[in-house]
Design goal:
six-stranded antiparallel β-sheet; 2 domains; alpha/beta; about 300 residues; eleven-stranded mixed β-sheet; Tumour Suppressor Smad4
Amino acid sequence: MPLAGIISKPQKHELDTILPELRAWLAQRGWSCVLDRESAAYLQGAQSAAAGASAQQAGAPQSDCDSVEREQMASRKPDLVVVLGGDGTLLAAARAFAHTNTPLLSVNLGSLGFMTEVPLCELYATLQAWCDGTAAIEVRSMIHAELFCGGKPTRQWDALNDVVVAKGTIARMADFAVEIDRQPIATFRADGVILSTPTGSTAYNLSAHGPIVMPTVNAMLVTPICPHLLTIRPIVVPGESAISVRVVGVPNQTYLTVDGQEAVPMQVGDQVNCRRSQFSVRLLRLQPNGLFNVLRSKLKWGER
């Protein structure tokens, strides 16, 4: 029996309807499912509602479902993961399944959705295309980050979008030293530095005036955040490059942030080393969409 994982965004009330329908669709095709705690809570609430009771009385099939913590879902080895939410939900799911080849079907329930390109109206058509072997899969590279404190490695991550070293709450800039392939690039004062994948080029990097890079390009981006030197510019480096950012001076505290969701404080002398991850994320699509179609639909490129 194939297994589907389901990950949902918290506080999305439309999931009270979507999840029971998705569960029934999977059951009709012989799939079992494993849900994260957020999804399980929606499903339990819907089952206690009158509509859910009516569906069960009508003989709607029920799949074999279980719930676990999101971080434990990869150990269940699902054949496919359905992500219901926005880009943030997809980023969390990508990190949870970073060490697997499990495809992620990301359905946009958010507002922008650069990566969650599949609209809700195409959910079941995309699932059916996956069952029929006709769905498209986009492979997105990840960035591997390792934090060194006092010269010793302390933590490591694999991120889909970016790794950011930036100052804390005080409105004063910090000093950073950047090296690429052990070659000193510059020591400069700024609000921070963004180390991004091509996928992340349309995230924080875009807001910091970094370049947009097609997801298929083998590259990484180094983008200063509000540097105090006009000569410091974003850099696009080969995907095999090794990049390091060291905290030279801080007014208060500096943070390392992974995909905008995990934050760790850094002190003077701490350093983060980044390279392309050996892992990648496989995004399931009904059909190839293309970056520029997304930019036209999301950022209204070409409109006046």
